[in-house]
Design brief:
Blueprint lengths: L5 E7 L2 H7 L5 H12 L1 H13 L1 H5 L1 H11 L3 E6 L10 H20 L5 E3 L1 E2 L8 H10 L4 E4 L2 E2 L2 E2 L6 H10 L2 E4 L15 H4 L1 H15 L2 H4 L4 E4 L10 H10 L1 H4 L14 E3 L5 H11 L4 E2 L13 H6 L5 H16 L5
Parallel strand pairs: 1-2, 2-3, 4-5, 5-8, 8-9, 9-10, 10-11
Antiparallel strand pairs: 6-7
Length: 334
C-alpha cells in the first residue's frame, strides 16, 4: 500500500459569497484597491483566465477529471482567496464564513474520499475567529485558510492568540495563502503584484509568526504555507544573523529563526527544481507537501512532473508526493 498523491493547494470558487457581498458598502472600495494593486494590464488578463476556469473551480466532476489527468488522488480544496473580504462588518463576515463552509463542504461531499476542504476565518474580527474555526470543523472541513495579514493587523497580533490556541488544540490545518500585497502600485505592472507580491507576503507573514514567538507558544500548530513559504526559507540565513547580532531581533522567539522552518509545512509550488531542493534542505523532507494552485494560471498543470524534475531520492519524492500530506490529514493509503 502506498500513500495517495495529495495536492494541498487547490481552490474553489463560491458564487454565493460574491452574490452576498456585491453592492454592500465597502465592496466598490475593495475592488478599486485590488485593481490599483494589480494594474489594468493584469486585470485584462486575469478576467478571461478566471472565466475559462470556472467549470474546474465550481463543478466537482470537472475537478475530478482534471485530477485524474494529473495523477492526483486527493485535493485539499480551499476557497479562492478572493473570498476573504476582510473589509466586511461583523454580521457580514459571519455570513461569509458560514456560506464558505457550507459551500466547500457540499463541493467536497461529491467525492469524500478524494476531496477534503478548508474554510475561512475573518481576520478583521478577532472575536469571530474561534467560532469560525469551530464552524468549519463542524461542517467536516479539516481547517481554515487565512491571508498574510488583515487591515491594521499582522499575524503576530496578540488578538489572534485564541485562534492559534484553538487550532493547536483541535489539530486544525491553517493554510497561509496571501491575497494582495501592501506594496500597492510599486507592483502594478508585469504582474509583479503576484510574482513578487505573493512570495513577499508569505515571507513577511511567516516572519511575524516566528519572531513574535507564536510558534514557541503553540508548537503543535499545523500551518501550511503556500508558494513554498515565499522568499523566507531560501533567505533564512539573514534572519538567523539578525537574531544572533541584535537584541531587538531575538527578543520575541527562543531559538534561531531557521529552526522554526521545521515546525511549519510548505507546499512545493516554487516553479524551480533548484528552489524546491533548497526548500527541502531548509525545512526537511517531511515538511514539504505537493501543491499545484489548481486550476489557476500561476499554478502547475503537472504538479507530480514538477516534483519529479527536482531529481529527489525516491523516498523523498514519495514523501512530498503524498506521504507527508497523508499523515497530516490522516488519510488512508491508496
Amino acid at each position: 500500500m502506498t500513500a495517495p498523491t495529495v495536492d494541498v493547494h487547490a481552490h474553489a470558487l463560491l458564487p454565493r459569497i460574491e452574490a452576498l457581498v456585491g453592492g454592500l458598502p465597502g465592496y466598490a472600495e475593495a475592488r478599486a484597491l485590488d485593481a490599483r494593486r494589480n494594474g489594468p494590464d493584469a486585470l485584462a488578463v486575469s478576467g478571461p483566465m478566471v472565466r475559462d476556469r470556472i467549470p474546474a473551480l465550481t463543478d466537482p466532476a470537472v475537478r475530478l477529471a482534471r485530477m485524474d489527468a494529473q495523477g492526483v488522488d486527493v485535493q485539499l480544496v480551499s476557497p479562492s482567496p478572493s473570498h476573504y473580504h476582510y473589509w466586511t462588518d461583523a454580521d457580514t463576515a459571519e455570513k461569509v464564513y458560514r456560506l464558505a463552509h457550507e459551500a466547500t463542504a457540499a463541493h467536497c461531499a461529491a467525492a469524500p474520499g478524494r476531496l477534503r476542504g478548508l474554510g475561512l476565518v475573518p481576520l478583521q474580527h478577532p472575536d469571530l475567529l474561534v467560532p469560525a474555526l469551530d464552524h468549519a470543523l463542524e461542517q467536516g472541513l479539516v481547517g481554515v485558510e487565512i491571508s498574510s495579514h488583515a487591515p491594521g493587523r499582522e499575524l503576530s497580533d496578540p488578538a489572534y492568540e485564541p485562534l492559534w490556541a484553538r487550532a493547536e488544540k483541535t489539530g486544525a490545518v491553517v493554510f497561509l495563502h496571501p491575497f494582495g500585497c501592501t506594496l500597492d502600485e510599486r507592483l502594478d505592472r508585469w504582474y509583479l503584484s503576484n510574482t513578487v507580491g505573493q512570495p513577499t507576503e508569505n515571507a513577511v507573514a511567516l516572519s511575524h509568526l516566528i519572531f513574535s514567538g507564536v510558534l514557541d507558544r503553540h508548537p503543535g500548530l499545523k500551518i501550511v504555507a503556500a508558494h513554498g513559504g515565499g522568499y523566507l526559507p531560501t533567505h533564512i540565513g539573514r534572519s538567523d544573523h539578525a537574531w544572533r547580532a541584535r537584541t531587538d531581533a531575538s527578543a520575541g522567539c527562543a531559538e534561531l529563526p531557521s529552526s522554526y522552518l521545521r515546525r511549519l509545512y510548505f507546499d512545493s509550488l516554487v516553479h524551480d527544481p533548484r528552489v524546491l531542493r533548497a526548500l527541502i534542505e531548509a525545512a526537511g523532507t517531511d515538511r514539504v507537501l505537493l501543491g499545484s494552485d489548481f486550476p489557476f494560471d500561476m499554478g502547475s498543470d503537472d504538479p507530480v512532473g514538477a516534483l519529479r524534475a527536482a531529481d529527489l531520492s525516491e523516498a523523498d519524492f514519495h514523501a512530498v508526493r503524498g506521504a507527508n500530506a497523508a499523515a497530516l490529514l490522516n488519510l488512508s493509503p491508496a
